[in-house]
């Protein structure tokens, strides 16, 4: 039994003995171009993990001997140094175990097995060599942990140094997994000899990529039901670098986070054409391209553009999570911390909202009542005072849970603190725009209404997004008023809208006999002004007559 396996078994026993313990793990991806590591803290109770550190080293392990195909001594030396740095970082974070996998370059090298033995002998690190299919599966798990799939199937593409993984999946399962030998480093080494690339090399490279991708693309098409519309997600350094270059060329600048950021096929085609005409020295001057990335960006960009064109995709969204995070999710599944990938995906937003609430010591019992009141108002008024759908409903729920998170910093102006904490928190499953909306909804749950001069409100450049904040923050204010004493005094609220009179009646049912909910009714009267102005209605709130009559009868009987 190796030391690594023994350590894992010991830790597994400890985890089963005390499921409340937090686990620190490291995951290393030994790729063709780079060695990446992520260190995470797992909370077994919430079945979530938080990324606490990252490390990346561009070692070009895939620059193999052209005659023998073996990993060169220089590449092996660079890889060993990088892995030692990863180990040192993991130790500094008190990681209980490090999981490492090797992919395309080591899979194909005749001396790949020797390299893995050398790593174990010199560093005591056990590395698992995984197949292209298994690499694709774990990439799927990584993406699944960081993005909300919804009802659509997704086509995931990961362009590495030695291979490209194409995956068709939905939130329940992977439908098709593939790994094709068209990586950015491989293509650069085998097909590019001129700088800038000649037109003949470009034509040949495009044709070669299309030929290599033909079979997986056909399988993906066959995996889609008739009239089923798929969306596309991209991971890896190549795609992220291209997106950052495009973003920096716009007024908005580089997005943070990258997850959820979309780029169009037309923009990518245009950028690829421009980069292909540049020399390496010229590409170095392009904002967003590192020294190493500038060398291989053109072949990688060609793979992405050709794949999108073959699949009929006009846009692609980014996901920052991939293989490394998939290694962590795979371990969590095996340890029973996650029931299934479907459960993990279906609850990704819910779990991370609650995780952030826990981090900032939010009173979850109170905030859940607030969120439920907000959803009740949303549902009853849908199609009458507003026409938002399930997506906006989910954003309102998240804001309801987190609206008081700013109290963690200070009660004074806590609504502004809530905005900052939500906006900069790790809420996975949401796009950057959705995060901005949630943060703004929390910002405007009290005090001032949204104003154009507010910096946070200006971040919402789309008119529709501002309208969401205007209307849903007004609903949130009413929901907060319904639990003014934060004791659950109101059992339910029923809405009756009279369109001809522009009048909305709120019938309040108390939770406790003898409680007239006087403070809640007063708070509603105070908070309703913003709601009335936003929706153009007169709001009248009153106690349920049946409850009021029975309460008065109880009082007379007592006398």
Salient structural properties:
16% strand; 51% helix; five-stranded mixed β-sheet; Hypothetical protein af1432; elongated; Nucleotidyltransferase, domain 5; 14 strands; single chain; disordered N terminus; 559 residues; 22 helices; disordered C terminus
Could you explain the architecture of this structure?
The chain has 559 residues and is of the alpha/beta class. A hairpin with a 3-residue loop joins β1 (23-30) and β2 (34-43). The chain starts with a helix and ends with a helix. α9 crosses α11, α15 crosses α20 (463-481) and α20 runs antiparallel to α21 (518-535). It folds into 3 domains: 3-132 and 324-338, ATPase, nucleotide binding domain (Nucleotidyltransferase, domain 5, 2-Layer Sandwich); 147-320, Exopolyphosphatase. Domain 2 (Nucleotidyltransferase, domain 5, 2-Layer Sandwich), CATH 3.30.420.150; 348-551, Hypothetical protein af1432 (Orthogonal Bundle). Helix content is 51%, strand content 16%. The strands form 3 sheets. Strands 8-7-6-9-11-10 form a 6-stranded mixed sheet, with helices on both faces. Strands 3-2-1-4-5 form a 5-stranded mixed sheet, sandwiched between helices. The chain is built from 22 helices and 14 strands. It has helices at residues 3-17, 73-92, 104-108, 112-123, 132-144, 184-191, 199-222, 237-248, 265-276, 280-284, 291-311, 323-334, 341-346, 348-359, 364-381, 390-402, 414-423, 432-443, 455-458, 463-481, 518-535, 545-558; strands at 23-30, 34-43, 48-58, 97-102, 127-129, 154-159, 164-169, 174-180, 231-235, 262-264, 315-318, 490-498, 503-510, 538-543. The protein is elongated, with a radius of gyration of 28 Å.
């Amino acid at each position: 039994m190796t030391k690594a396996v023994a350590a894992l078994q010991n830790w597994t026993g400890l985890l089963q003995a005390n499921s409340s313990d937090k686990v620190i793990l490291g995951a290393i991806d030994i790729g063709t171009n780079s060695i990446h590591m992520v260190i995470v803290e797992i909370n077994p109770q919430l079945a979530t993990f938080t990324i606490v550190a990252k490390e990346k080293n561009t070692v070009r392990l895939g620059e193999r001997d052209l005659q023998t195909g073996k990993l060169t001594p220089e590449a092996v030396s660079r890889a060993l140094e990088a892995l030692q740095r990863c180990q040192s970082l993991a130790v500094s974070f008190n990681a209980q175990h490090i999981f490492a996998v090797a992919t395309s370059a080591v899979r194909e090298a005749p001396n790949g097995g020797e390299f893995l033995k050398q790593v174990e002998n010199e560093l005591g690190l056990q590395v698992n060599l995984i197949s292209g299919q298994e690499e694709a599966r774990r990439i799927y798990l990584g993406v699944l942990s960081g993005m909300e799939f919804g009802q659509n199937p997704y086509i995931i593409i990961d362009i590495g140094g030695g291979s490209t993984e194409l995956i068709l999946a939905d939130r329940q399962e992977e439908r098709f997994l593939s790994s094709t030998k068209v990586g950015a480093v491989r293509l650069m080494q085998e097909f590019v000899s001129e700088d800038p690339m000649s037109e003949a090399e470009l034509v040949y490279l495009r044709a070669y990529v299309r030929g290599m991708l033909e079979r997986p693309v056909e399988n993906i098409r066959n995996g889609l039901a008739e009239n089923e519309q798929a969306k596309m997600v991209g991971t890896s350094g190549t795609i992220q670098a291209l997106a950052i270059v495009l973003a920096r060329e716009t007024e908005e600048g580089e997005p943070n986070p990258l997850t959820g950021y979309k780029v169009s096929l037309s923009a990518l085609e245009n950028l690829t054409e421009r980069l292909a005409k540049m020399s390496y020295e010229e590409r170095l001057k392009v904002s967003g391209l590192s020294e190493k990335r500038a060398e291989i960006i053109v072949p990688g960009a060609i793979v992405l553009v050709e794949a999108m064109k073959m699949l009929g995709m006009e846009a692609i969204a980014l996901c920052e999570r991939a293989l490394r995070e998939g290694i962590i999710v795979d371990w969590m599944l095996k340890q029973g911390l996650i029931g299934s990938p479907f459960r993990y995906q279906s609850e990704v937003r819910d779990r991370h909202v609650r995780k952030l609430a826990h981090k900032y010591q939010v009173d979850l019992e109170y905030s859940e009542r607030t969120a439920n009141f907000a959803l009740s108002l949303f549902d009853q008024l849908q199609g009458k005072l507003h026409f938002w759908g399930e997506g906006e409903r989910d954003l309102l729920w998240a804001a309801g849970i987190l609206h008081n998170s700013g109290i963690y910093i200070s009660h004074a102006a806590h609504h502004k603190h809530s905005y900052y904490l939500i906006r900069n928190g790790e809420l996975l499953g949401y796009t950057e725009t959705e995060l901005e909306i949630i943060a703004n909804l929390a910002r405007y749950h009290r005090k001032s209404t949204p104003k154009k001069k507010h910096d946070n409100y200006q971040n919402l450049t789309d008119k529709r997004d501002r309208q969401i904040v205007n209307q849903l923050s007004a609903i949130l204010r009413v929901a907060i008023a319904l639990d003014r004493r934060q004791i659950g005094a109101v059992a339910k609220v029923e809405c009756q809208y009279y369109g001809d009179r522009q009048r909305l009646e709120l019938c309040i049912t108390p939770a406790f006999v003898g409680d007239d909910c006087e403070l809640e009714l007063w708070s509603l009267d105070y908070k309703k002004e913003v709601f009335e102005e936003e929706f153009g209605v007169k709001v009248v709130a009153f106690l349920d007559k049946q409850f009021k009559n029975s309460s008065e009868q109880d009082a007379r009987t007592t006398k």
